[in-house]
Specification:
Elements (H helix, E strand, L loop, with lengths): L6 E6 L5 H9 L3 E2 L1 E2 L3 E6 L1 E6 L3 H8 L9 E7 L4 E7 L5 E8 L6 H17 L3 E8 L2 E6 L1
Antiparallel strand pairs: 1-8, 1-9, 2-6, 3-4, 4-5, 4-6, 6-7, 7-8, 9-10
Length: 144
């Protein structure tokens, strides 16, 4: 199993924002900044921006005009040296995290998934009603 086989799905009780979820994850060490000083995000197509423009990027991702569209933000945990894509579907009541940064062999995929899941538990205290970790086609549902 590679890290692309481990993802986490989130379900929210009401629409949320990328900024709110990123703020909750930041408390657990996650950041949108990686590769030195870049922020990678997607609204219709992938783009990147300087880290000092993170407020503009989050404003674009959370803009009312973009609510009907799927948007994404790469996240990174510097201590773990791994990260991935945090994608929000239209309506912003569900999202998923897919490990994609520093893809590693079998042993590291569950580590990244579990670290993000623990971070997700932090986010779930305020925003998330449930999240699901998936690896090796096995699903583990946890209620927030």
């Amino acid at each position: 199993m590679g890290s692309r086989d481990a993802d986490i799905d989130f379900a929210f009780t009401c629409p949320t924002t990328v900024r709110a979820v990123l703020d909750a994850l930041a408390a657990a060490g996650w950041s949108a900044v990686h590769q030195g000083d870049r922020v990678w995000y997607m609204v219709n197509e992938w783009g990147d921006s300087a880290a000092d423009r993170i407020d503009d990027v989050l404003g674009e991702l959370d803009a009312t005009a973009n609510q009907p569209y799927t948007v994404a933000l790469d996240t990174y945990h510097s201590e773990a040296k791994t990260g991935g894509m945090l994608m929000f579907r239209s309506g912003r009541t569900d999202a998923f995290f897919l490990p994609t940064i520093d893809r590693r062999c079998i042993p590291a995929a569950p580590e990244c998934r579990d670290r993000f899941a623990r971070s997700g538990a932090v986010a779930s205290q305020r925003y998330c009603v449930a999240f699901e970790c998936m690896a090796d086609s096995a699903c583990n549902r946890r209620e927030g």
